[in-house]
Specification:
With 174 residues, the protein is mainly alpha-helical. Helix content is 72%, strand content 0%. The protein contains 10 helices and no strands. α5 runs parallel beside α9. It is globular, with a radius of gyration of 17 Å.
């Protein structure tokens, strides 16, 4: 934990180096992802600094997911939430994952447990018991992913036919 406290006090460049070390434990990596996200989202860095840290943050997310410490749903949700914050500040930039609405949307669509047609057939939900536990869990995951993804597109001021369809459906998801 001492190492994590030391990491949290680093400027973004030093933080990037620390988070990418191979000897950091998965628990520390997960906590470092949280701290790194906070630093990028809240500390109002200039775009060039965010651009430098982005590949390290993305690699940390991939490592946590590949090591089984973070689900695909959670990793996409984190990316979409960060995109939502930063797209409003910097606008779209396809070179940076969380500034690329099309890349965020593609990741979201790949991670969805249900298609838009399947979701449309289940909502609006009037009787939770009729939907079933597995479908409710899947609907919750859809909402976790699509809420920030749709909002990120809005923040970026970009249009997409699939996102427009999801914009109409996901608010009906319980």
């Amino acid at each position: 934990m001492t190492q994590l406290v030391q990491i949290s006090d680093l400027p973004l460049a030093g933080f990037s180096a620390a988070i990418s070390r191979s000897d950091i434990s998965i628990g520390e990596l997960r906590a470092a992802i949280e701290l790194f996200t906070h630093k990028i989202a809240v500390e109002r860095y200039e775009k060039d600094v965010v651009e430098q840290g982005a590949p390290v943050w993305e690699a940390a997310i991939v490592r946590a997911r590949d090591d089984g410490d973070m689900s695909q749903i959670e990793s996409v949700e984190r990316i979409a939430h960060l995109a939502l914050v930063l797209l409003g500040r910097f606008g779209p930039d396809d070179r940076i994952l969380f500034l690329s609405p099309s890349r965020v949307a593609a990741m979201a669509f790949d991670a969805l447990p249900l298609t838009i047609d399947e979701v449309s057939s289940l909502v609006p939900v009037t009787n939770l018991a009729e939907v079933g536990f597995e479908n409710l869990r899947s609907l919750r995951d859809v909402k976790r992913i699509m809420a920030p993804t749709v909002k990120a597109f809005t923040a970026a001021g970009t249009q997409d036919d699939q996102i427009a369809r999801w914009s109409a459906v996901f608010p009906l998801v319980p």
